[in-house]
Amino acid sequence: MNETPKPAGAFATLWDSVMALFGRSKLLVKELEDQQTPADDTVLGKVGLITARVAPGRAGEVRLPIRGGSEDFIACVDANEAPLEINAPAEVVSFLAPRTVYVRSTDKAAQMT
What we know:
Shape: elongated
CATH class of the largest domain: Mainly Beta
CATH superfamily of the largest domain: Nucleic acid-binding proteins
Distance between the termini: 52 Å
Oligomer: single chain
């Protein structure tokens, strides 16, 4: 495995500081992503309302009840699904991290909080 060579002399201390900061930044970003990304089972099967039209090949938006409130997710439908218009109820059938869901039309009423 090739490692980036460490500078010598006056730049060595600066290099160590930058690398330490970079390493901590990566850990903080990962921790933040873990906190903000709902688990698959949190959104699968949830019923929400379409807030921006969704059609095959064109992403829209759905508002889902989650964590005691509601959150907006990017919504997609499969190629064989009909478009979903604004305020239509939609059920989540698949989840792609961090904020994308595949939805389908449903007759279930959305329970928004």
